Amino acid sequence: MIAGIKVEEEIIYDLEWLDIELYVRGQHGYWASLRIEP
Question: Domain of life here (predicted)?
Fold first, then answer.
């Protein structure tokens, strides 16, 4: 049971990290497109 909780915590942490990375990448892509478009 403890091992299962540990795995779930790691999965949640990974998902949060991916979500933050995608958000940051999305912002950089948005600003890049703003610079390219007149």
Answer: Eukaryota
